[in-house]
Amino acid sequence: MGPLVPEVIGNELNFIVALFVGIAFGFILEQAGFSTSKKLVGLFYGYDFTVLRVFFTAGLVAMIGVIAFDHWGLLDISLVYINPTFLWSALVGGLIMGLGFVVGGFCPGTSVCAAAIGKIDAMIFVAASFLGVFLFAEGYPLFENLYKAAPWGNVRVFDSLGMSQSLFAFLLTVVAVGAFWAVTLIENKVNGKSNPEFNSKPLYYGLTGLALIIALSAFALPERRQSLLSEVNDSRFVNGYALEAMDCDELAFDIMDKDKNLQIIDLRSQKDFNAMSLPNSTRFNLENLFEKDAHKLLTIKHKKNVFIADDEMLEKKAAVLASELGYSEIYYLKGGLKQFRNDILNFQQPGTASNQHERDTYRFRTNAAQVLPMLIQEYKLKMTASGSQQTKAKRVVGGC
Amino acid sequence: MNETKYMNPYLAGFFLGLILLVTIFITGRGLGASGAVKSGVVAAVQVVTPAHTADTKFYKEYSEEHPGNPLKNWLVFEIIGVVIGAFISGLISNRLKLELEHSPKSTTKIRIAGALVGGALFGFGAQLGRGCTSGAALSGMAVLSTGGLITMMAIFGGAYAFAYFFRKMWI
Asked: For residue A87, is it within any domain?
């Protein structure tokens, strides 16, 4: 599950990845014609809309790809860098960059690309951009208030607009396809002739159709998480689902046996978890079961994954969710932690045993009621000593 | 030999989108450019006046966010790649040529002044806007970041708004 950095690809190897990404990036920019300011500013004077075509196509492909990867569980979007939103600096900074664009004829990426093939004006632009950054750095105290005003956090645009991701993706695709059509008309008018490259009508109708079909399919994609979460809120569905239960005695036995294959997934609140948690348990909730941390834990081979919570129903919900997400060896604790406390941790023998089975059970539980609290205490001390109870994967730091 | 034609823009866009998607899948972050310039500036100032970087707020905040050598930065490696990639592309398409390009209706002097002022403005604006056309606008669009899309609209909207006043430089 992506992102592959830092687990699959280490931070050092990531620099090599950056180099190759850059080579591909620079190659495509140059092939697209972004290495000449004449072609770039054509966008603003209506004679060449290459920039808009390349930019919008790239944005759509990447956007739809990210949505699809997220949907298929290939990418944990909660770990991906989402550019933070600071309303005023984004607006004012953007306007200044727009002015720089028409005056200088490049943007930073394209200027580097043009400088690489020998454009002297681009080399000047690159050198001057260092100066611009330097001026910002030196004058930073003056701009700091503007720079940090209206922090909205890592918000995503469909949330800001209060619509679904699929609707926004669809609308953006429609706008882009409309823009592709409109700019070709403008271009032909400004240049007084039509560009033969965009005349092969059937091909472009085909591509337009394909783009719109893909855009429509966006509606089918991101519903999975929502629909799964609403499915597990239906108790009839959960109770009708074939799940495997583990009873309290078995769980107690496995813990005391220090069974290496046992993984306990605790669904309670952080507060309850801190107050008392079973050895080698990890805390999750229904939401973050979809994320990469859960994926890493639940895909370890030959493990028994037992969901625990005070309430058995919550355990079952999580177990259904995990099964639906394709994880195997999923169990829920029969009766929940309520019963575990009652039958094991605070075990009181209810009178004398009437048969051999009861006698064995009572003996085991009496023993467990003494041993388990010690194991729990021991584990707690170990965790406090090592500093962290749980390492959580962090969002990648990116941006310019 | 003549220069080869440019790639079809939709095809180029498709490839660029795939590169961005793969980058996000592997590294969890998008593309960028102006960040490398920032690393370069910080590194240069550190070498020239180490004391200044230690007591100026901008540099202090930078080294808090990016500990270690400022040049050991993802975007610096990426930009080195961009130079190599663009050079290879220019080589195979016969576009390697040392020249100062300007519109026939403009002059070399005006072009140099424009590149200087424009570059400085872009560098400054990219700091304020937390990224440029690549880092904020394109990568922001891929992950549907509100800030990225606002910056994108401001860059292109601003460029259209100011284009009229600088038309003599281009057309």
From this structure: yes
Q: Which of B47, B144, B168 is most worth mutating to test chain A (most A CB atoms within 10 A of its CB)?
A: B144
Total count of residues recorded for chain A: 400
Query: What is the extent of the structural domain holding B58?
Result: 1-98
Is residue A397 assigned to a domain?
no
Three-state DSSP state, A279 = coil
Average pLDDT of every residue of chain A: 89
**Mean pLDDT of the region A371-393:** 77
Q: Which residues in chain A have Cβ-Cβ distances shorter than 8 Å to B18?
A: 61-62, 65
Supply the pLDDT for residue A123.
Answer: 97
CA pair distance A28, B11, nearest whole angstrom:
10
pTM, to two decimals: 0.84
- CB B127 to CB A137 under 8 A? yes
Non-local CB neighbours of A23 within 8 Å, separated by 6+ positions: B81, B82, B84, B85, B88
**Could you list the residue range(s) of the whole structural domain that residue A206 is in?**
11-221
Q: What is the pLDDT of residues A38-83, one digit of tens each?
A: 999 999 999 999 999 999 999 999 999 998 888 887 898 989 999 9
At residue A390, does pLDDT exceed 90? no
| Secondary structure in 3-state letters for A225-255 | HHHHHHHHCCHHHHHCCCCEEECHHHHHHHH
Record the tokens describing residue B54, joined without a space.
Answer: 């230690």
A352 — alpha (psi -120 to 50), left (phi > 0) or beta? Answer: beta
Domain final residue pick, B43, B67, B98: B98
What is the count of structural domains for chain B? 2
Do B121 and A99 form a contact (C-beta atoms < 8 A)? yes
Pick left, alpha or beta for residue A118 (phi over 0 → left; psi -120 to 50 → alpha; otherwise beta): left
Domain-ending residue, one of A203, A221, A239: A221
* Continuous H helices in chain B: 9-27, 34-48, 50-55, 57-65, 74-92, 108-128, 139-142, 146-163, 167-170
Tokens describing residue B143? 């992950």
Q: How many angstroms away from the CA of A209 is the closest CA of chain B?
A: 14
Q: How close B1 comes to chain A (CA, Å)?
A: 17
Is B133 in the same domain as B169? yes
Domain count of the fold of chain A: 2
- pLDDT tens profile A187-231: 999 998 887 777 767 878 888 888 778 777 767 665 677 778 888
Q: How far apart are CA B129 and CA A269, in angstroms?
A: 38
